[in-house]
Design brief:
alpha/beta, 8-stranded mixed beta barrel, 11 helices, 52% helix, globular, binds ligand C2E, binds calcium ion, Diguanylate cyclase (GGDEF) domain-containing protein
Length: 277
């Protein structure tokens, strides 16, 4: 038994070492990716649910890896978060997005851009100062940007999260509570959080098209948001029936494959030309 335990420990150790080495190589690969423009902004449109008018887009990161092809954020973000590289990654992304927002503004395109922040970003005490500095130099308009923060990220350290959110809000950014209704409920903090929007999680949208109970839940979330004066966006809208139901429930905006899947910036601009005369 002792021999087996020893063997287990050895295998475990080798596995950890390999994992560690793998993570290190991933971290350096991600650094290179940022430096060599392998990271791309993909955009997914959002529309007003009543008029169908395109009103904005969510920015979703993609990694165009020279060997592995297109890598999804779910594959590389956990590593970026654990290694702390996410802080650099988010700064890189925010600067790129603000540049795009400025370009659009100058071209007369009035669209709201949303970006995702992670818990590590909220715990980064220098992010607000960095953004303030960037805003001053670039003269980009922070009001064109909505920062999406998930409930579970807020709940990791609600006090710290709320104070970071307040600092970002003071700079002029809009804030949204992402994946609303999932995980640890941030309901108790909803009143204290400087958010102006909640994003109803895709799971609710899916359920709503399957049961009347699900529909009631969507109606309750929208009613709650309206009581608090919050804007609502539904994510993962895939069918016309879902759009119809959300619009009837009073949800302000929809986002999902029904409109379009996330696409590169140039493709998005071309798409917009066809969908928005
Ligand atoms: P999220 O913020 O909830 O983003 C929505 C995800 O749902 C996106 O996946 C999007 O492609 C996908 N989606 C959109 N419409 C539909 C639909 O109709 N049906 C289905 N089944 N899926 C839909 P994606 O791009 O793989 O991103 C996954 C997650 O990774 C995001 O979830 C977000 O939490 C995170 N993420 C993406 N980009 C960034 C980033 O730049 N920074 C940070 N911190 N997180 C990011
Ligand atoms: Ca999001
Ligand atoms: Ca979401
Ligand atoms: Ca999500």
């Amino acid at each position: 038994a002792a021999k087996r335990a020893n063997l287990t420990a050895q295998v475990y150790h080798q596995g950890m070492e390999r994992d560690h080495r793998f993570q290190l190589s991933l971290i350096s690969a991600l650094r290179t990716a940022m430096e060599q423009d392998q990271l791309q902004l993909f955009l997914q449109p959002k529309a007003h649910s009543r008029s169908g008018q395109i009103c904005g887009a969510e920015v979703l990161l993609r990694w165009q890896h020279p060997q592995h092809g297109l890598v999804s954020p779910q594959q590389f973000l956990p590593f970026a978060e654990r290694s702390g590289l996410i802080v650099e990654l988010t700064r890189w992304m925010l600067v790129a997005v603000l540049k795009l927002a400025k370009q659009w503004q100058e071209a007369g395109l009035n669209l709201q851009l949303s970006v995702n922040l992670s818990a590590a970003d909220l715990a980064d005490p220098s992010l607000p100062a960095y953004m303030a500095d960037f805003l001053m130099h670039s003269r980009a308009n922070p009001r064109l940007l909505t920062l999406e923060i998930t409930e579970s990220e807020v709940m990791r350290d609600p006090k710290l999260a709320v104070s970071s959110m307040q600092a970002l809000r003071t700079l002029g950014f809009k804030l949204a509570l992402d994946d609303f209704g999932t995980g640890n409920s941030a309901l108790a903090y909803l009143q204290d959080m400087p958010v102006s929007e909640i994003k109803i999680d895709r799971s609710f949208v899916t359920h709503a098209s399957q049961s009347s109970q699900g529909r009631v839940l969507i109606q309750a979330i929208v009613a709650l948001a309206q009581t608090l004066g919050l804007h609502t966006v539904a994510e993962g809208v895939e069918t016309a029936e879902q759009w119809q139901m959300l619009s009837a429930a009073g949800c302000d905006e929809i986002q999902g494959y029904l409109l379009a899947a996330p696409m590169p910036v140039a493709a998005f601009e071309a798409w917009l030309g066809k969908h928005q005369p």
